Amino acid sequence: MSSPPSNLVSGSSGGLRGGQGLPARVFITEVGPRDGLQNEKQPISATTKIELCERLLNAGVQRLEVTSFVSPKWVPQMADAAEVLAGISRRSGVRYSALTPNMKGFEGALASGVDEVVIFAAASEAFSQRNINCSIAESLARFERVAQAAKRHGLKLRAAVSTAFGCPYQGEVPVEIVVHVTEQLYAMGATEISVSDTIGVGTAQQVKEVMLACAQSVPLTALAGHFHDTYGQAVANVMASLEVGVDKFDASIAGLGGCPYAKGATGNVATEDVVYLLHKLGIETGLDMQALVEAGQWISQQLGRKSLSRAGNALAAKWQSEEAVAQ
Ligand code: HMG
Ligand code: MG
Questions:
Q1: Cα torsion through 156, 175, 203, 306, rounded to 10
Q2: Which of 150, 251, 263, 290 has its CA 20 to 30 A from that of 320?
């Protein structure tokens, strides 16, 4: 395993909690409306998506991944991207983003007034073909054009590297490829790269190794964790990332989600569960736990099932029983 980058030596950076070596502040990108809903089979109205976004904004979310400008043939649930973006309130200090797989997607996102576009490559050839119908090299060439267009138009650029911890089609993914793709995306100007566990197979030690390997090539501050929770490892993987100094995470309200091209993969780590952990560690998030829990319970009711957030369900039950006692 590679040694920690020098900026992680305990107490050496203003952004880290000296004694514990954990970040003092963590930035969460809420991906529920996009990663969360994209995999839902039942049609969800734009009105429901807009209300979810508003509830998340009311909870203090400042980085909101609203939707995707992808082919409606590939992901029908995201076909209303422009309508959803047109319907949500724009609040100062909030970064509204959308996924853009190519220039067509970029044009749609630009016209809808996003602040940030998200390009998404894979570290596995098989997954790249299934998800975006091209090789990794072809995808990087497409993303270069999107990145340049983003720069020309003054939009922020974020990126994801899928299958960084394992692939549903090819199995193991060499860490060198994860590092290579991460480097390429950083070189294009992506200020944040989500090292993504698409199918939730990664475990804590592996997460540390992959994050540290990437941090040898790009600044640690450019890395984010994106952990699906298929094997119940996502909160542990967030903790492992924090321990090596990662201070950015994607999370999905109520643990919604999955990728339609990663069969069997469940949702992202639940935002409520990550925020519960962070607040208990004394780490700032700027998020209001109660409003998050309420948003998670609300969208779960809309979808007709129980929330997948353990912390969200526990807190909702606790508050309900406290209310009953008080009456
Ligand atoms: P393609 O079929 O190769 O595209 O799909 P094409 O360029 O050959 O065009 C075919 C048709 O699609 C044309 O229309 C295009 O206009 C249209 P036609 O002439 O047949 O009527 N088209 C589009 N329409 C709307 N928006 C666009 C667009 N581009 C082309 N942007 C493509 C290639 C990339 C478009 C397709 O494969 C696609 O949309 N894939 C997206 C898959 C996806 O959204 N997956 C989930 C998101 S990634 C994810 O969840 C992982 C992540 O969370 C991290 C992790 O967990 O790992 C980020
Ligand atoms: Mg994902």
A1: 40
A2: 251
Measured in residues, the chain has a length of: 327
Q: Are 107 and 145 in contact (CB under 8 A)?
A: no
Token digits of residue 171: 């199995």
- How far lies 99's CA from each of 3, 25, 85, 119, 226, in Å? 34, 25, 12, 6, 15
Q: Is the CB of 69 under 6 A from ligand 1?
A: yes
pLDDT band at 264 (very low <50, low <70, confident <90, very high): confident
Does the predicted TM-score (pTM) go above 0.85? yes
Mutate to test the pocket of ligand 1, among 69, 71, 248 (most ligand atoms within 8 A of CB): 71
- The amino acid at residue 225 is G
Q: Taking 60 as the threshold, does the pLDDT of residue 12 lie above it?
A: no
Q: How many Cα atoms are found within 13 Å in the side-chain-facing hemisphere of 43? A: 7
Q: Is the pLDDT of residue 258 over 90?
A: no
Task: List active site positions.
Answer: 259
Nearest-CA residue for atom 42 of ligand 1:
131
Q: Which protein residue has the closest C-alpha to ligand 1 atom 17?
A: 71
Residue 289: what are its φ and ψ, rounded to 5°?
A: -60, -45
273's tokens? 């569960």
- Among 169, 175, 185, residue whose Cα is nearest residue 213: 175
Q: Please report the pLDDT score of residue 37 as a whole number.
A: 97
User: Is residue 146 within 6 Å of ligand 1 at its C-beta?
Assistant: no
| CB 292 within 8 Å of CB 279 | no
Q: Is 27's C-beta closer than 6 angstroms to any atom of ligand 1?
A: no
Residue 22 token pair: 């954990």
User: Which tokens go with 266?
Assistant: 């469940």
> CA 279, 29, 203, 161: dihedral to nearest 10 degrees?
-160
Q: Which residues pair with 120 in a beta bridge?
A: 160
Nearest ligand to residue 75 Cα: 1
